[in-house]
């Protein structure tokens, strides 16, 4: 069954999901909006055993949440991903490589998603975490990378925070 996307405001300790639990374009195609965006961009619907989104580094990246956040005083759309291979230790994917993945995710997922839902965000935030972390919770042992972008003419422009 395909469920419609509902937008609500995200607040710490109270995550409003714009996609269903488990991410987008999984085995049962749980979120039509994300799937339509990905398919329209030529990104194949993923194999039944792999729900990873394609990124330049090739690491497995899974969409966990899309949040609409008015807390900064303006609309920010937050795309939260789990990327279990990120980290600073040897053999892990560091920030320098992961930042290219975040820019790619902004361009190929966030831009069409925002257009499809006719949103006007001041910022788009792409975050990667090596494990699921609830929005607003602290997780000192988790590795997390964040980047903010403004959208101009369907392009992600990096906003160093």
From TrEMBL:
<protein>
    <submittedName>
        <fullName>Uncharacterized protein</fullName>
    </submittedName>
</protein>
<dbReference type="Pfam" id="PF20107">
    <property type="entry name" value="DUF6497"/>
</dbReference>
<dbReference type="InterPro" id="IPR045467">
    <property type="entry name" value="DUF6497"/>
</dbReference>
